[in-house]
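If you are new to this repository, start here. Below is one unmodified record pulled from the training split, so you can see the exact layout before writing a loader.
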Amino acid sequence: MRLSKQTKILTIGAAMLLVVGFFVVPQIAFGAPSIDFPTSFADFSSQDLKTIIENIVRIVLGFVGIIFILILLYGGIIWMTSGGNEQKIAQAKKIIMSAVIGLILTLSAYAIARLIIRSIEGIGNPPTSTSGGPPGGFGIALGAGALESHYPGRNAVGVPRNTNIFVTFKEAMQPGTICDPGPDGILGNLDDTVLEANVTVMDVNNAVTAADANNANPGTGVGQDNILEGIGCQPTDATNTTFKFDPPANLGRTSGDTLYQVDLTPAIMTAAGKPAVWPAAYSWKFTVSTSIDTTPPTVTSVVPLGPPAPFGIAIPRNTIVQVTFSEAVDPTTASGIFDAVNNFDNITLFDDTGTQIEGAYRIGNQYRTVEFISNEPCGINSCGLWVYCLPESVIDGTVTDAVTDMAGVSLDGENQIPLTFPSGNGTLGGDYLWPFQTSANIDLSAPFLTDREPPKVPLTGNVSLFNPLELHFNESLSVRTLISDNVYISSPLTDYWIEYDGDPDLNPLTTKSLVRIRHDRFIPVTTYEAGVNSYVNDLFQNCYFPAACDNDGDGALTTPGPDDPNGNGDFEAAECAF
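And here is the target side for that same chain:
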């Protein structure tokens, strides 16, 4: 059967578009007003031997792919100029078929090579703390998917044996796809356990045996059963976004470190009925040490700090109250709501009439920081959203020792010297107390970006494959808005998570802040795109909009001038490239 010239062109064009699209077309993300800071990984000079080998494989296979594309194009030209000559058409088909087979083999070789490299890429990586690390799992879920954070972190080391495990999703989940209702068949009771078909926690190397005293099933000889059977499971609040997994016994051993892996399968469903992880199970690993955690957490900062006037300053009423701890704390003990219906009182704020202030305590910053926002609306920010205020008053804050860390150890909160950090006297127990004062003022000025790492465009080569991306802002930020939907790596897809550091002076009027985007190991010789959108708020609930920057480093917003040739003012989004 002879094909028309138009059909030939369409057929070959479609094949070319498919191939070129696979190799070339980048993924593009659309969202709220944002500032992107593209980075390029194209320099071999500071990369290890494994990375150099990976680069060579990618480049060689890339050139081979291009050759086969040219051969495919050559076959197409012969076919289009055949003039109906059956011999030339047969020759063209043979060339095209050979090129297609070559492309398939090239793509297969690339996939196999990448799989092998990915499987060993964690070897030789520097050790990390419990806050996270380089690749430790598979699947895309953390940051790029429905999963916001988890504890312990990816490739965490030194995890105590008596830890609990937490996972936080970006949206409400179906608890029945995570927790098993237990013997009574009712979800939400204390006898609920992890639904083992969808959530597994295993001793990777079967290091734990029946001889270990903490084995939950003595005599079985199966190390993985140490925690697989009977892990407690409960959502931490009514939103069904954070879940606590409570092993029935201590993890690990007394004689050496133990590597564990957690798997969350695509059978875990959001409240909307969609898989929470894709395209396969999301997995991460962490290493449990031989130690039992008995060290109490402490308070390392509070914002606003105080003291009240005349010894301190009165801060705007729309300030978010922020408490940061020395380590991750249990959300079930550190977050909740106080109002006419809910009675959370592990952290409290009282005004000068002795009335407890109503509002919500929410946790963020990888479970290290708790924020309080009141229920009283008092203004509108630049995004058109409500801002909520504290009363104009001297306010007394208390963090009680009902707050515990991830191992259940109570807060050491005593104030040895007023308004100094960390809190505590080295022993369990004791509340942390501090006063501060609010004024009648409301601060509605938007935050702006002062610096970023990687630095200013054009694209920066030789960027570390491991180091976090960094964003510096001119003031304190709300950790509850520093989530992976608002501060993100949009392409190519990778697992990432957000951490936040404020300035030690603890004054929301002068504090500068640093946002870190930690991530899995970047793929060498790849351009990444990341950004921050307008849903990021400062500590006065003002959103990052319009996108504003200090380009000349003078500590103030860039104004129209030499570095703003378009004359569009302080909020020229294109000027936020650094």
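Two things worth knowing about this chain: The chain has a mean pLDDT of 78. The CA atoms of residues 451 and 472 lie 5 Å apart.
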